[in-house]
Specification:
By secondary structure, the protein is an alpha+beta fold. It contains 1 helix and 4 strands; from the N terminus they run E-H-E-E-E.
Length: about 80
C-alpha cells in the first residue's frame, strides 16, 4: 500500500504535521483508489544544519546584494531563499 515520506525542516508544530498527514492521505487515497486507512505518511523533521542545497547548508546566512532590500522570511518559502 502507498507510503509517502516527507522531509522538512524541523520547527513545524504538531497541528501542521497533522494537517499535512491528513491532506496527503486524502490525495493519495483518491489518486491510488485505495482506502485512507492503508496510506502511510512518514514526516521527518530535519535540522537545517543537516540539510544542504547547492553546496551550502541551509543554516548558512545568505548575503543579500547591496542594491536589493531584504525580503522578510515569512514573505517567501524557505527553500526559495537558498542559492
Amino acid at each position: 500500500m502507498p507510503v509517502v515520506t516527507v522531509d522538512w525542516w524541523k520547527g513545524n508544530d504538531r497541528q501542521k504535521r497533522a494537517d499535512l498527514v491528513d491532506e496527503l492521505t486524502t490525495t493519495v487515497a483518491r489518486i491510488a483508489g485505495c482506502p485512507r486507512d492503508v496510506v502511510t505518511v512518514l514526516v521527518r523533521d530535519v535540522e537545517q544544519d543537516h540539510w544542504g542545497r547547492g553546496g551550502v547548508l541551509a543554516d548558512t546566512p545568505i548575503e543579500e546584494p547591496a542594491d536589493r532590500a531584504p525580503v522578510p522570511a515569512e514573505a517567501e518559502p524557505a527553500l526559495s531563499r537558498r542559492p
